[in-house]
């Protein structure tokens, strides 16, 4: 073992994780306890135990190994995942893990698969309908005044809210800039919309976020952001 290596210590229905921080030492008077060889460690997760249910099956199986110790070098990523989950306070489940993997696979397919920008606009249209819009339509290119998709929501069965969307099929880099926010603002004004949205498979720059905040402070109309 080397400095920086993880040590996983099973303890009943839980386990602890430590990181080695010093060289091996030999304490002669501890030979009778079979603890003469020692190393300094930093107990992770604030020295708190982690439930075994946080671990995936391969790590759980390795913790059942009979004997003094077993190598788990191939499971370092799974150990780190358990530490991240413990820190977040989110209890993992098979369903949540599956949903996360499907989301990442879907995002990758949107970015690199057989979906052009026009198809992405229709995907956004469908998502808005699924979210409860009574109407959702893609704006034709020759009539585009800053809105790619316009949706109507009926709130409490009585109040109609118009939502204007800029739908951008982008990669993660470069991020969306201020120009997209300016286009969206034009669309909000042209449609007399109540809310603007940027929906993208990419990322959104801080400059764009700041411009959206300035518009809200000035006009009282919010621009929501959903990115990759």
Can I get a quick summary?
The chain is of the alpha+beta class and 228 residues long.
Describe, in plain words, how this protein is organized in 3D.
With 228 residues, this protein is α+β, with helices and mostly antiparallel strands. The chain folds into two domains: 6-92, no CATH class; 117-226, Trna Endonuclease, Chain: A, domain 1 (3-Layer(aba) Sandwich). It has six helices and nine strands. The chain has helices at 57-63, 76-88, 94-112, 117-130, 178-191, 206-219, and strands spanning 6-11, 14-26, 37-43, 50-51, 135-138, 149-155, 159-168, 195-200, 223-226. The strands form two sheets. A five-stranded mixed β-sheet has the order 5-6-7-8-9, with helices on both faces. Strands 1, 2, 3 and 4 form a four-stranded antiparallel β-sheet that branches. Helix 5 runs parallel beside helix 6 (206-219). The model has no long low-confidence stretch (mean pLDDT 92).
List the helices and strands and how they pair.
Layout: E1 6-11, E2 14-26, E3 37-43, E4 50-51, H1 57-63, H2 76-88, H3 94-112, H4 117-130, E5 135-138, E6 149-155, E7 159-168, H5 178-191, E8 195-200, H6 206-219, E9 223-226
Parallel strand pairs: 7-8, 8-9
Antiparallel strand pairs: 1-2, 2-3, 2-4, 5-6, 6-7
Tell me the number of structural domains: 2
Percent of residues in helices comes to 25-40%
**Unreliably modeled segments:** none
Give average pLDDT, whole number.
92
Quote the CATH topology of the largest domain: Trna Endonuclease, Chain: A, domain 1
Please identify, by name, the CATH architecture of the largest domain: 3-Layer(aba) Sandwich
Number of strands: 9
- The Cα radius of gyration reads 26 Å
Report the sheet-strand fraction: 25-35%
Task: Return the structural class.
Answer: alpha+beta
In sequence order, what are the helices and strands, one letter per element? EEEEHHHHEEEHEHE
Helical run tally: 6
The major sheet is characterized as:
5 strands, mixed
User: How are strands sequenced across the largest beta sheet?
Assistant: 5-6-7-8-9
């Amino acid at each position: 073992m080397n400095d920086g290596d993880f040590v996983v210590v099973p303890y009943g229905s839980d386990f602890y994780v430590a990181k080695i921080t010093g060289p091996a030492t030999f304490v002669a008077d501890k030979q009778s306890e079979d603890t003469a060889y020692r190393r300094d460690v930093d107990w992770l997760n604030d020295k708190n135990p982690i439930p075994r249910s946080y671990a995936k099956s391969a790590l759980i199986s390795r913790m059942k190994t009979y004997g003094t110790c077993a190598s788990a070098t191939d499971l370092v990523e799974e150990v780190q995942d358990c530490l991240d989950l413990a820190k977040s306070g989110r209890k993992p489940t098979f369903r949540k893990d599956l949903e996360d993997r499907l989301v990442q696979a879907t995002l990758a397919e949107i970015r690199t698969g057989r979906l052009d920008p026009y198809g992405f606009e229709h995907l956004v249209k469908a998502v808005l309908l699924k979210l409860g819009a009574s109407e959702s339509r893609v704006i034709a290119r020759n009539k585009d005044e800053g809105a790619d998709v316009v949706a109507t929501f009926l709130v409490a069965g009585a109040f109609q809210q118009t939502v204007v969307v800029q739908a951008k099929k982008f990669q993660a880099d470069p991020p969306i800039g201020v120009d997209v926010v300016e286009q969206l603002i034009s669309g909000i004004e042209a449609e007399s919309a109540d809310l603007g949205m940027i929906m993208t498979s990419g990322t959104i720059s801080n400059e764009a976020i700041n411009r959206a905040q300035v518009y809200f402070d000035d006009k009282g109309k919010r621009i929501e952001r959903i990115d990759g």
